Amino acid sequence: MGKIKKLFKNQGTLLLMLVPGLVLLIVFKYVPMYGVLIAFKNYKASKGVWGSDWLDPLFKNFITFFKNVNCWNIIWNTIKVGVVSLVITFPAAIIFALLLNELKGNRFKKGVQTISYIPHFISVVVICSMLNGFGSTTGLFNDIREFFGMARVDMNNGSKYFMAEYVGSALWQTVGWGSIVYLSALSNVDTSLYDVANIDGANRWHKVRHIAWPAMVPTATVMLIMNVGNILNSDYTKILLMQNDTNRSALDVIGTFVYQQGIVQGKFSYATAVNLFSSIVSCILVVGANMIIRKTNPENSLW
Fold this sequence. Notes:
- Helix 3 crosses helix 13, helix 5 runs antiparallel to helix 8 (162-186) and helix 6 (124-135) packs parallel to helix 11.
- This protein is mainly alpha-helical.
- The protein starts with a helix and ends in a 7-residue tail after the last helix.
- It has a two-stranded antiparallel ribbon with strand order 1-2.
- 70% of the residues lie in helices and 1% in strands.
- The mean pLDDT is 89.
- It has 13 helices and 2 strands.
- The chain has helices at residues 2-30, 48-51, 60-67, 71-102, 106-117, 124-135, 140-147, 162-186, 191-199, 204-228, 236-242, 254-264, 268-296; strands spanning 41-42, 53-54.
- The protein is globular, with a radius of gyration of 24 Å.
């Protein structure tokens, strides 16, 4: 008790500043969690969450989902999109941060940083409109194809070019913004290390390998653990906007399936159960990734 009083006495102002954030976190993140109960209930809006009857059997919605003929196709599509996005976008932000760190001239460096951040703030609706326009037979992508001697095709027809457009646009949107946290880690590197490296005759590659990269490893490890948990959380809004009659079944992921079942068809209990399944798997992925990191490098694990 004495330690708590001492903490409040010494850091009372900081703790007071923490209160609004904690209140918002509890109200908007933790309080709504009771709503997952409808995954196990025959939810009726007129009866509310507590008034609705429990399902019999309790896991009926989960059983229904796994018996759905499209279930494993939806799960596979989700995993495929999530893994490919992670493999490409995650290291891209690290490489971009390392390249930015090597740029000379603060003004030019800040200009490049600002330009790279801009796509992050563009609405997903605008991004998808751009992709639909660029992917048409008269669009920019086909102009590039024609320049290299390839035939023009409608890239919006079918799912053949979906992954390239989805991951490419995600890379464009996130590489600059994602590099911020790594640049922050690099800014904490003692500059005297570079001076010593220069004296020892180290080139840029040696400096990146032995100074910059080790400084980024703890941050990169934490970000990797968190990103692994997002494998099943694809940007369903973008996928939904990229869907059309020719590719709808091939592009169906858990996020779009939940939207169709919950919002469009009004099956709130069923949609909640599917989304809860996704959340549980994501939690398992985070815990699993952290366990692997803890075994290999305990200092860089989350817990």
